Amino acid sequence: MGLSVVAATGILALSLTFLFISVSLSIFHVWEDALKYESNIRSDIIKNSWTVAIRIESVSFISNTEVEINATNVGSMGIPESSFKFMDVVVVYFPEGTSKRTSEYLNYDPSGGSGTWRVISVVTSGSEGESLNPICPCPAAGKGVWDPLETLVIRATLSSTANTTRPVNALVVSPWGQRGYG
Fold first, then answer.
1. Contact predicate 178/53, CB 8 Å
2. What residue spans of the chain are helical by DSSP H?
3. Which residues 6+ apart lie within 8 Å of 173 measured at CB?
4. Least packed by Cβ within 10 Å: which of 88, 94, 111, 180?
């Protein structure tokens, strides 16, 4: 009986050791992949941070729930339309019936809707439309590029009504962190 207890204890210890080693190697592999992924993201941010710039040309109310933002890509690199979902648009306004400013983060949705932003047109060299990498301001969007010196006409739909007699501002941030505020 004594030998079987020793053998069972040995087998259990060996099994636990192999389990510990396999779990440790799995965790190490996950961390290694995460570090590689983080390195690629940092490289992408550094590469694009010097070539992307956004300038807000104008921000105005269309109605008490809609704001039009004209934002120009003044950098030397285009922003793919497929990356618009990674862009941040924040509208700063005074809600109806209050004297305090509020900020509203809006999600990209080419179909529009409350609490969203979408591109309604693109202005190139002062006239509406574009011929290079056209952006489709429609729900089937995704293949165009916001090229340098093009101005996006953005329609932001607020989730609450705004006091249109007070100022409105907007912040537009690229997927790589460059921003324009106006």
1. yes
2. 2-49
3. 54, 87, 88, 89, 90, 179
4. 111
Q: How far is CA 35 from CA 24, 32, 42, 45, 49, in A?
A: 16, 5, 10, 15, 21
Higher model confidence: residue 142 or residue 21? 21
Q: Which residues contact 145 (CB under 8 A, 6 or more apart)?
A: 78, 79, 80, 81, 132, 133, 135
Helix (H) or strand (E) holding 79: strand 79-80
Q: Give CA angle at 11 (8, 14), nearest 5°.
A: 150
pLDDT digits (tens, 9 = 90+) for 32-55: 776 777 777 667 666 665 677 899
Contact 81, 141 (CB under 8 A): yes
Calpha distance 147→167 (Å, rounded): 29
Q: Is the pTM of this model over 0.85?
A: no
Give yes or no for a contact between 66 and 164, defined as CB atoms under 8 angstroms apart.
Answer: no
